[in-house]
Sequence to fold (271 residues):
Amino acid sequence: MTAERLAADFEVDLERARRALDEFESFERQPASALAVDGSALFTEPGFWAYHLSSSGKDVAALEAVFGLPEAQWLRPFHTGVWPTFTITLPSGGAALVVYRTDAMVTLEPGCVVGPHTEYMVDFWLAPGDGGPGMTLAQLSGHWFGPGLRWAELQAIARDALPDRLAAARRLLLLTPFLGDAAAGDEAADHLAEALALVSGRDRLSAEVPTLAGILVDRSSEPEWRLWNDVWVNDEYYCMRSSPDREDRNHPWPVEQLRRVDVALAPGHEA
Fold:
């Protein structure tokens, strides 16, 4: 980006463009390590679960029925200067993180004026146990990027918390918004219903619990996974784990990176 290009694009004089460029480039973002805080205290808040799961099944009435709160009282855990972060250890030795991220930034507005801008997103971040770099597998934002998980992977991550059934339920529900798998059927609905009952305190057999579980599964059951070069891929347009042989993908991952994901997330029977 040059001042000359800005001046032309925004139809302003060169001096104004230079001042705007200097201000824009001097903006400093805080590092993630300074912003991340433990979010686990939110696990006891019904309003957090209602909001978090609304991205998987935007059925307000069903969520209100299970968690007992009107939508206006749902808890949106976005805070400037603080990123609530949930860390889950994986059976493979790595870790998965769910990060509620509020990015304060600046943008160039009409007239080449530098103005404040805030973006809200939820990242599903994978840190494999091999010591290599981590990566974003999925993201909830203005545009959904995913899916990030197969049902077999999610099920194994939840089961790894047993015999603590409540911890397993929280893992399952925390990662459900990043699930997308045509193989998630009745079995997934049963597990989700049990998790919803444990987290919300509702009766597992009450009508509202299996109803919401079915909605969550329906939202997650369209994308199909396939093996390509011995790694799992999904050809949804916004899936980071799509196969490199798809020409319509803007940022395909190499097969080596896809294999690192598979190893980090592999259920025990696939390892």
The CA atoms of residues 223 and 236 lie 6 Å apart. The longest helix spans residues 186-200. The chain has a mean pLDDT of 86.
